[in-house]
Structures are given as structure tokens and as C-alpha cells.
Write a structure and sequence with these properties.
Layout (H helix, E strand, L loop, with lengths): L1 H25 L14 E2 L9 E6 L6 E9 L3 E7 L4 E7 L1 E6 L8 E5 L3 E4 L5 E5 L3 E9 L4 E2 L11
């Protein structure tokens, strides 16, 4: 019996030592970001040209929670699309017109101003239009992706 306990303890220790680095990589990272510390980059190729973004927490390309900010110039539009995970969008500055459905119709949008929140489940078809420069904060689970309802609207196809 002692031999069995010793072998089980040894196997458990080896397993723990093997898993510890992997578990450590999955632990949440601490983040504090003030508005003035946000570093903007050109928007991802999956969005129409002109946007900028900054990842504040996590990694949108990997499994797990992330937070990113998107800055849209005046008169910016994102055609109807979906995402594979829940999205919570908070308007930081400016205003965004959100529309739901497969067809872009500015008359069927709802304006959401600074401080407002939009939450959407996975697969919800929606589109975006802004009139003025606007910053939104997107919280979701990666890997983040965008699938355009009309494949011809996908800016990655024109590159």
C-alpha cells in the first residue's frame, strides 16, 4: 500500500509540475489603463479602412476575455456582420448608430451616445454608422472574428 501511495504522489507531483507553467499562462493579467495612455494603431484589416484600435486587456486573437477600444472617423460605416461570441460595446465618446439585421438601413438604426452600452449575443447580425469621430470599448471573448453578411463587404477581400 505504501508503494502505491508513493507512486501516486510521484505521478501527482510530475503532473502538477507539468501543468503549472500552462496554468500560469492562463491566469488573468492585471491591467490599469488611463485614457491618456491608450496607444492607437491602424484598425484591423477585418474592418473598413480608417478605424484605429488599441487592446487594453487580453488578446483578441486567443481564447479568453479581452477589452479593446476602437476609434472611428466621422462618416464611418461597418456593413452588416456577425461575431462568434457575445459582445458588449460601451460608447466612450461621440455616438454610434447601431442597426440590427442583414441589410444596412440608416433609417432603422438606434443612436447610442457616450456612456451608453449595447450588448449582443453571438451571431446577431448588426451594422454600425457614425457621424462624428467616435470611440467605443469592446469587451468580448476571443478569438475575435467578424463575418460579413455579404462577403463582398469584407475589406480583407479587396487587399
Amino acid at each position: 500500500m505504501q508503494s502505491f501511495v508513493l507512486r501516486a504522489a510521484t505521478c501527482g507531483s510530475v503532473l502538477l509540475l507539468t501543468l503549472t507553467p500552462a496554468l500560469a499562462q492562463q491566469q488573468p493579467q492585471h491591467a490599469m489603463v488611463n485614457a491618456g495612455d491608450v496607444t492607437w494603431k491602424d484598425g484591423p484589416p477585418s474592418l473598413p479602412k480608417g478605424s484605429q484600435f488599441s487592446v487594453l486587456y487580453g488578446d483578441p486573437g486567443k481564447d479568453g476575455i479581452f477589452v479593446m477600444r476602437l476609434k472611428f472617423p466621422a462618416d464611418y460605416r461597418i456593413p452588416p456582420h456577425t461575431h462568434p461570441a457575445d459582445e458588449v460595446v460601451t460608447v466612450v465618446s461621440g455616438a454610434v448608430n447601431f442597426g440590427m439585421g442583414a441589410t444596412f438601413d440608416p433609417a432603422k438604426t438606434t443612436a447610442v451616445s457616450a456612456g451608453g452600452v449595447v450588448a449582443m449575443p453571438p451571431g446577431m447580425q448588426h451594422y454600425v454608422q457614425v457621424g462624428q469621430e467616435t470611440v467605443v470599448q469592446l469587451s468580448s471573448r476571443g478569438p475575435w472574428n467578424i463575418a460579413y453578411v455579404n462577403p463582398a463587404d469584407d475589406p480583407r477581400k479587396s487587399q
